[in-house]
Recover the amino acids of this structure.
């Protein structure tokens, strides 16, 4: 058996939970020295319509979106439209004086002290929130949780506000800025910051949860709030569709849909500095703050640590119905992406184990 076949069989063994025709699926890509070393999908993108997952299937990235939000800020900094040390109230004057000390850098590194918006959504809310709604929720708070810059606490609020800053500094919507400055230039032709009624998702994967299982992992911050809408039910299936929640329309912290095929282009751009300058990439991947997890620090939209003595930059994405991970081994010019449309599993562990094979 040739080496490629041996590696494929080993990846298949790792992905066996996704590798049947009647379960929510997964897509995997391994990029080595800019070339595709492995590319395969498993299971289904849509159980109700019996649509098989493919490498072109677009999954909701959830918090993997944050690397694109941070990249947008860095692009605007390169162009002089803002500085990462600007006070956020320069662009978001709606915030009260308690936010005077918060800078864009604090938002990027989760050190702003802002309350996580999921924790303050009014109990009777039924309409999906957008990034501006997050700004309004945060603006109604009386104080930060701690003095800005003194502590790390993962905050989806910060990245929703960053999307608003991108909009106001560029004069374009966040979704349009991404399209014009990242997706289109790279040829990521089906990647989109999805806005219901404005844009669509081609080859869309829908999210699922196992029947009877807890479905309260919207976002990656503390105390996530559950506002799941079960909008589908495949008769006789152990899976129910849980594709959207109240917070699924917030773009800056998790609203991008993409495929492994498109993400290849993004990963190459990070190695080749085709979108961001090397100096900006150095900022994104600098381990600015300790996260509280031993050995893991946070950059701008990326976590940084080591795996078996090798430097890694990575991020996960977890939201109702989706769990994803991207792991880069920059010194080995190796990257692995695992995207899934189910509300369980550990794609980060899978990505590391797949990376070990190479």
């Amino acid at each position: 058996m040739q080496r490629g076949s041996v590696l494929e069989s080993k990846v298949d063994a790792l992905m066996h939970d996704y590798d049947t025709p009647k379960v929510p699926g997964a897509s995997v890509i391994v990029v080595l020295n800019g070339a595709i070393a492995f590319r395969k999908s498993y299971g289904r993108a849509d159980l109700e319509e019996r649509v098989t997952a493919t490498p072109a299937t677009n999954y909701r990235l959830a918090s993997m979106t944050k690397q694109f939000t941070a990249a947008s800020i860095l692009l605007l900094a390169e162009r002089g439209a803002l500085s990462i040390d600007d006070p956020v109230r320069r662009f978001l004057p709606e915030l009260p004086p308690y936010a005077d000390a918060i800078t864009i850098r604090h938002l990027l590194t989760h050190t702003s002290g802002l309350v996580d918006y999921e924790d303050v959504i009014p109990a009777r809310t039924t309409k999906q929130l957008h990034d501006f709604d997050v700004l309004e929720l945060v603006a109604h708070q009386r104080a930060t949780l701690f003095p800005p810059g003194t502590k790390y606490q993962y905050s989806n609020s910060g990245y929703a506000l960053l999307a608003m800053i991108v909009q106001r500094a560029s004069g374009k919507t966040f979704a349009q800025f991404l399209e014009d400055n990242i997706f289109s230039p790279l040829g990521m032709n089906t990647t989109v910051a999805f806005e219901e009624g404005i844009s669509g998702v081609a080859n869309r994967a829908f999210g699922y949860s196992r029947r009877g299982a807890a479905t309260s992992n919207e976002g990656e911050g503390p105390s996530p709030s559950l506002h799941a809408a079960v909008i589908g039910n495949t008769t006789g299936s152990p899976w129910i569709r849980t594709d959207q929640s109240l917070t699924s329309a917030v773009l800056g912290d998790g609203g991008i849909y993409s495929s492994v095929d498109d993400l290849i282009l993004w990963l190459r751009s990070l190695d080749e500095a085709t979108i961001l300058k090397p100096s900006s990439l150095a900022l994104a991947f600098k381990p600015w703050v300790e996260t509280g997890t031993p050995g893991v620090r946070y950059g701008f939209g990326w976590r940084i640590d080591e795996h078996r003595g090798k430097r890694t930059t990575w991020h996960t994405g977890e939201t109702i119905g989706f769990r994803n991970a991207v792991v880069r081994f920059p010194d080995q010019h190796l990257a692995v992406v695992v995207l899934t449309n189910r509300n369980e599993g550990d794609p980060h562990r899978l990505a590391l184990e797949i990376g070990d094979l190479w």
Notes: Residues 221-234 have pLDDT under 50 and may be disordered. The radius of gyration is 19 Å. The chain is about 25% helix and 20% strand.
